Amino acid sequence: MHKPTKGPARAVPPGQLIQRELDARGWTQNDLAEVMGRPAQAISEIITGKKQITAETAIELGEAFGVDAAFWSTLQSNYNLHLARQQKSAHDVARRSQLHSATPLLELIKRGWLSITRKSSIDEQESAVCAFLGISSIGARAELSISFRSSEHRGPDWSAKVAWAKRVEHLAGPLVKKLPKYSKAALEKAIPKLLKLTATEAGVAEVPGFLAKQGIGFVVLPHLPKTYLDGAILPVHGHPVVAMSLRYDRIDNFWFTLLHELAHCLRGDYVFIEQNGEDEDGADAQATSWLLPEAAFKAFVKSAAPEFAMSRIETFAAEMERHPGIVIGQLQRRVPDFGYAKGRNALVKVRRLLAPNSHS
Asked: How far apart (Å, rounded) are the C-alpha atoms in residues 237 and 177?
């Protein structure tokens, strides 16, 4: 006779061992039903797992197979625990899936934006993400008023953009508390003074202090993967905050993105969570006009095309009180035949000019 072990090394369905006992004896399920005085249907359901082994059934199986009834009760108990663990594991998998859908979790951990590790429990990770996003539970929508400037045609990951914006909020919070009250009228009046800073590289370094005097926060934060973000503007504690990723670390992109966001600021667009193409087009048009007014730019293009000698570009830049890199950038943007090879040396990097309030 086949003698079962006292306890299975792994979680074995009780019905599987019952079937082995039947096979060892050459019995059918009907034979066991006859021995135990049970309906054949009941024996079939126990073997297939549709019914569990009760204390009474354990005693009868013990008598039928000559095995201690406690073995069958323990076998059923161990298997129940195994199923419960499987269900918990599946539930944890679902929770982890939801976490990774809600935010780029591993990237946030890598950058130190969350006070957890990859080995933290699912409860700890979930709690940290909820606190970071300012939500009560995973699946809730994070509250956010913002206008993003990003490459929408590349299909940016919205959850990653929200995570980036939330990090900006956290960084800007302590900064804006020290700022004077923001005034739209004061900003409009200050724009001409701001534009004078575009003439030199050194002007970039003065931008954070200039904006602070207008009650506007300024944060530089590298973009997250799949966000394709250049910048954004959002309210924090009643102050507008301009955030820039410097994804393209060039003087022309810096000034265009900054002025684009300030155009949103003056229009009040950043108080809405969603933006549309008209909002972005309008901000682009305003930034373009501030940098190089249309009439002056068209006159220059007409006189300098098709050669666009660097000496002509530098002279025009000096006349407009703009850095030559800004003119190069606008030529690339607004003149299809200009190309991207000419004047690359003028597109200086600017990240080095900005104090790292957080480049992480």
From this structure: 8
Give pairs for 123-126: CB < 8 Å, separation 24+: 125/96, 125/99, 126/95, 126/99
CB contact at 8 A, 232 and 149 = yes
Q: CA torsion angle for 276, 282, 283, 285 (degrees, to 10)?
A: 140
Distance of CA 203 to the CA centre of its chain: 32
- Structure tokens, 73: 């009760």
DSSP-based three-state secondary structure for 219: strand
60 vs 51: CA distance, rounded Å: 15
Distance of alpha carbon 70 from alpha carbon 45, whole angstroms: 21
Sheet containing strand 217-220, strands side by side: 147-150, 229-236, 239-244, 217-220
Secondary structure percentages of the chain, helix, strand, coil, to 5: 60, 5, 35
pLDDT digits (tens, 9 = 90+) for 262-308: 999 998 866 654 454 557 889 999 999 999 999 999 999 999 999 99
Quick one: which of 231, 286, 270, 232 has its CA closest to 253? 231
State the pLDDT at residue 360.
Answer: 53
Query: Exposed (0-12), middle (13-18) or buried (19+): which is 138, by Cβ within 10 Å?
Result: middle
Q: How far apart are CA 40 and CA 67, in angstroms?
A: 21
Contact between 350 and 254 (Cβ < 8 Å): yes
Q: How many CB atoms lie within 10 A of CB 155?
A: 9
Q: Give the 3-state secondary structure of 130-154.
A: HHHHCCCCECECCCCCCEEEECHHH
Instruction: Supply 132's token pair.
Output: 């970071």
Task: Look at the pTM and tell me if it is higher than 0.85.
Answer: no
Q: Name the CA dihedral angle for 262, 268, 272, 273, rounded to a multiple of 10 degrees.
A: 10
What amino acid occupies position 126?
A: E
User: Which domains, and CATH codes, for the chain?
Assistant: 14-96 (1.10.260.40), 103-133 (no CATH), 147-290 (no CATH)
